[in-house]
Amino acid sequence: MKEVEILTGEFGERIGQLSLADAISQNHTRLENSFNRLYPDKSYDDCKQEVVDKIDEEQTAYELDIKLRMNYLARHGPNYRSIPFLLSIAYCIESQRAFEKGNTEEAWAFIPYAESFAEMAEEDFILEAERLDSVARAGGQGRAAKFKPAKDEAIRLLKENRPEDGWKNDINYAIKLIEDDLCCFIEKEKIDLNWGELNKTLKRWLKVKNSEIRTEFER
């Protein structure tokens, strides 16, 4: 396959210079890693086959997206966490089949959607892991206490840098304005938090409803 540069824009980060086959393969690897950690008793291959069967029944990735996305956003149903996996796989399959038909541009156009849902799947794994960790350490000292100074500083920075008309739910802009100062604070205070992953950590913190940091962000 021809080497092509692709930008995922608002749906994800830059993939860079790689082939369509590599892009699809990397996305499946990313999904499988999250899937195996979130569902250790289930098979990623079975999940892929479920999607293949749906598409073979003439359901497009877009149709599956329309049908399932609202259930995921509403956290509706016992299996809502599997939806990002299903949709990311669906867009990968659509991409591969479009390429096989000679529709290269259409094939590449599916990749940002596959990447976007793969990111959602990763975030769900992290949030669930943090929830289980919180339950496991109830009543004792744990990560929450260890990271509280960093969260408190993030709250202070959000308040200090807040625009006159508020953040308007723009998480990326808020992180851009406070990330460097928070990183310096973490290093200065020797907080055991990976500052290389700080952007993702802040996104997780800011998405937890009714938390102190989310409340400050929404002011």
Contiguous helical run count: 9
Strand residues, percent: under 5%
Q: Round the Cα radius of gyration to an integer and report it.
A: 20 Å
User: Looking at the structure, what is the overall shape?
Assistant: elongated
N-to-C series of helices and strands: EEHHHHHHHHH
Helix-and-strand structural type: mainly alpha
Please give the share of residues in helix.
55-70%
What is the tally of beta strands?
A: 2
Distance between the termini: 50 Å
Average pLDDT level: 80
List the uncertain runs. 1-16
Q: Order of strands across the widest beta sheet?
A: 1-2
* Major beta-sheet overview: 2 strands, antiparallel
SSE blueprint:
Blueprint: E1 4-6, E2 16-18, H1 20-38, H2 44-56, H3 61-73, H4 83-100, H5 104-136, H6 143-161, H7 171-189, H8 198-207, H9 212-218
Antiparallel strand pairs: 1-2
Helix pairs in contact: 1-4, 1-5, 2-4, 3-4, 4-5, 6-7, 6-9, 7-8
Give an account of the 3D structure:
The structure is a single chain. The protein has 219 residues and is mostly helical. 69% of the residues lie in helices and 3% in strands. It has 9 helices and 2 strands; from the N terminus they run ββααααααααα. A two-stranded antiparallel sheet has the order 1-2. The protein is elongated and about 55 Å long. The N and C termini lie far apart (50 Å).
Q: Can you give keywords for this protein?
A:
219 residues, 3% strand, 69% helix, 2 strands, two-stranded antiparallel ribbon, mainly alpha
In short:
It contains nine helices and two strands. It is mostly helical and 219 residues long.
